[in-house]
Structures are given as C-alpha cells and as structure tokens.
Design goal:
By secondary structure, this protein is α+β, with helices and mostly antiparallel strands. The chain is built from 4 helices and 6 strands. The chain has a 6-stranded mixed sheet. The radius of gyration is 19 Å and the shape is elongated. 36% of the residues lie in helices and 36% in strands.
Length: 179
C-alpha cells in the first residue's frame, strides 16, 4: 500500500511539474511571439498575444517610441497597440527582435517575465543603415481561456547602437506611403 501511495504521489508531482513547464513555455511563446510576428508583419498574430481587454505599454525609457511614453500610461486594446507600432515598424526594410536570458515567475493565473532584448532595425538611407535597441523587456501576463495573454509590457532601454534617427526615418516612410 505504501508503494502505491508513493507512486501516486510521485505521479501527481510529475504531473504538476509538467503543467508548470507547459505554462512556462506558453508564457515564453507569448512574449517571444510579439517580436517574431512583428518582424514578419503578421499584425493579427501580434495582437493575439495581448489580453483582449488591453494591456499597458511602458516605453518611457525611450522617448521616441510610437506608444507608451505618456506620463499616465493608458490601457490599450490589442488593435491600438498594433496601430501604434504600424506607424513605424513597417517603415524599416527589416527588423529582428531577439530575446534571451529570460526569467519567468508563475503564480497561479498570473506570470511575470524579464528578458534581454537586442532589436535590430535596418533601413537603407543616406546615413548609417542600422539602429539597435539594447535593453530588457518586462511583461505581466494573465492566463485566459485562450492561453497566456500580455497585460503589461515595459521596454527598458540600456543602450543604442547605430543611427538613432532611424525610427524617425521609418515613421516618415510609413507616413509617406499612406498618402
């Protein structure tokens, strides 16, 4: 009987560990998918990573961001987040958002993450063609019926390499293309 109880306890422990790993993987997928799908220009998939009731973007460490720099940070619906990013990201020839050294903490249906970010932006112009944002992202997520969804995203700029005017050039390119 003790062996059966021990086996049952071990099985329950293994099931819990697998569920925790599964949740951690799903959280990492959600935060990584934002940059991955933005690089592909798949805006529906970008929006799908955010909570349907909205999320707060905090880009106050980078004053030239297209959203999330206001003193009072509003909750933005996924479509609003995408619309803000579409004012600049499609203006680049290419982007590559690389996240790593990720940390995930899960507490029930809530998760927090921190991940280093190295975001490369390329746009041919008369000056330097590359701008790199180096820093970290912090996220908060909630588990929903549709999986883990981002409710908060903070970008902490640590350094910039290359042409710091490239975001403005990319935004001008988007604006000119829409006229």
């Amino acid at each position: 009987m003790k062996k059966i109880l021990a086996s049952a306890a071990l099985a329950a422990s293994a099931t819990t560990a697998i569920a925790e790993i599964s949740d951690e993987r799903a959280v990492l997928n959600a935060i990584n998918n934002v940059g991955y799908y933005a690089d592909l220009g798949d805006w529906d998939q970008v929006a799908a990573q955010f909570h349907p009731e909205g999320a707060v973007l905090d880009y106050t460490s980078y004053a030239n961001a297209s959203a999330g720099t206001e003193q009072a940070l509003p909750t933005l619906l996924p479509a609003e987040i995408v619309a803000a990013w579409q004012t600049v990201l499609p203006g680049y020839d290419r982007t590559h958002h690389l996240m790593g050294t990720e940390s995930v903490q899960i507490d029930g249906d809530r998760a927090t993450t921190t991940a280093n970010i190295y975001a490369t932006h390329i746009l041919a112009n008369d000056g330097e063609d590359t701008w790199v944002f180096i820093g970290d992202y912090q996220h908060e997520l909630t588990k929903t019926e549709d999986g883990w969804k981002i409710t908060f995203m903070r970008a902490n700029l640590r350094a910039q390499l290359g042409n710091e005017n490239l975001p403005a050039l990319a935004a001008e390119r988007v604006k000119a293309a829409s006229q």
